[in-house]
Amino acid sequence: MFLLGKFISTFRPSIRYPIFVYSRKPLSTSYVLKDSFVDEEGNEDILNNFRALSDEIFQPITGGRQAFIVQPHIKWGPKKKRDTTPELQMEESVSLIKTLSDWTVEGKEIVPLYSFDDASFFGSGKLDELKLKISLNRKISALFISVNMLKPLQHKVLEDFFGLPVYDRYLIVMQIFREHAFTAEAKLQISLAELPYLYSRMNHVHSASLQRIGDAASRISGTTIHTPPDTRKLILHKYEKKLKVSLEKLEKNRSTFRRKRKTQNFPVVAVVGYTNAGKTSLIRSLTGSNKLVPRDFLFATLDVTFHMAQLPCNLKLFYVDTIGFISDVPTHLIEPFRVTLADAMNADLVIHVQDVSHPDWLFQRDRVIETLESLDIEKKLLHHVIPVANKIDLLPSNHGLTIPDSTNQISCITGHGINSLAHRIQKEIIQTTGRAHLVIRAKTGGEEWQWLHSEATVTKAQADPKNDNYSLLSVLITEKVLDAFKRIFIHNYVRK
């Protein structure tokens, strides 16, 4: 909330962004290209021109879709996935579709291929077979090819052949992001994540659409657009420039917030995991907060949020809830979220939540580890990761899973293992933040006594057996705070 007021007043495109689906169906030309689209300062003009262009390429969704899912997989070779199965991949593809409001699955098929590089993606025989199956069900209104991102030519060929809008994982995940984005930060980052897809499709607009754009610009501005491709790129560049200015402001505000947080000496624990692994549920269990309402669907959390809690030793800290990871999406889809993920990258400790009730949990675990290693995280932080096996209450007693001893087994529903995990977090945090455990003698209620309660963590207080006017305070204290204490007070202390 520290950012919203200023953010909304300076940049409206991040609040109202267009919702896109790739389509080449004829659309209404009731759009406006203003004569000031070259105006560097006109945010609304830039947004209007951007919408005019994007509406010629993307069709906003009104209502849901009835999807036929195709789950392709490589038969053999170096690109064959050996740590999962096509059936498990199909289950995730179905979950993605069901996450979208008013979307249903009307059919599905697993298709083995030698590669994903063919111009038509599938061979001619498989194309005809799929078209026949789809034609037999008139409810089907969309085709979902579950690969990270179709090439523009493949997209065009498939839509022309099937006569239906075609989606890849990039488009489906973007649709989910838009449905679950509520804050200005999330909407800004989603808008940035859309741009690479828009750039890749710029050269695949029908010439008739380009002519309509040029005619509209001529009517409104009194000028002629001689090079439509350059005009399209100019509009996108201007929109991207405004987005990046706002992203820089967001990054600056986030950095300021991180500096303020560090001055408070509160440790930070980042909670990461595959989407829907139970990150929010775990934070709710560790904080005891009823304000956190976990939601049982993919990408329920798009914003990085902070939640204060207290460890068994009374040490206060922040748990950071982060966006969930998922496999088979282009890396630049996650790139815009690096600003807010930086809060997790600057943590003192990482908790990796794993849904061990999921049949593909090992595959999901490895994808999260790969993603963490690809981010700009200090190597030492990667050595301070607590693996957590969540949802063990959903496992049968004879599950037969091999869960490493270093992994805490918990259930956020029954509370099993939560207390043990909290003590492990406490031990790791004390170690990673370099806190010393000391016993300091201070006059009860005196300046030193009050200062230590304010600036350090008092884990235990007991009367001094030699003098009832004094207390022996067991404290957790950082080196920086201890140095400040020494400068302010002359006092004796002993290491515990």
From TrEMBL:
<dbReference type="GO" id="GO:0046872">
    <property type="term" value="F:metal ion binding"/>
</dbReference>
<keyword id="KW-0479">Metal-binding</keyword>
<dbReference type="InterPro" id="IPR042108">
    <property type="entry name" value="GTPase_HflX_N_sf"/>
</dbReference>
<dbReference type="Pfam" id="PF13167">
    <property type="entry name" value="GTP-bdg_N"/>
</dbReference>
<dbReference type="Pfam" id="PF16360">
    <property type="entry name" value="GTP-bdg_M"/>
</dbReference>
<dbReference type="InterPro" id="IPR032305">
    <property type="entry name" value="GTP-bd_M"/>
</dbReference>
<dbReference type="GO" id="GO:0005737">
    <property type="term" value="C:cytoplasm"/>
</dbReference>
<dbReference type="GO" id="GO:0043022">
    <property type="term" value="F:ribosome binding"/>
</dbReference>
<keyword id="KW-0342">GTP-binding</keyword>
<dbReference type="InterPro" id="IPR006073">
    <property type="entry name" value="GTP-bd"/>
</dbReference>
<feature type="domain" description="Hflx-type G">
    <location>
        <begin position="267"/>
        <end position="396"/>
    </location>
</feature>
<dbReference type="GO" id="GO:0005525">
    <property type="term" value="F:GTP binding"/>
</dbReference>
<dbReference type="InterPro" id="IPR016496">
    <property type="entry name" value="GTPase_HflX"/>
</dbReference>
<keyword id="KW-0547">Nucleotide-binding</keyword>
<dbReference type="InterPro" id="IPR027417">
    <property type="entry name" value="P-loop_NTPase"/>
</dbReference>
<keyword id="KW-0460">Magnesium</keyword>
<protein>
    <recommendedName>
        <fullName>Hflx-type G domain-containing protein</fullName>
    </recommendedName>
</protein>
<dbReference type="InterPro" id="IPR025121">
    <property type="entry name" value="GTPase_HflX_N"/>
</dbReference>
<dbReference type="Pfam" id="PF01926">
    <property type="entry name" value="MMR_HSR1"/>
</dbReference>
<dbReference type="InterPro" id="IPR030394">
    <property type="entry name" value="G_HFLX_dom"/>
</dbReference>
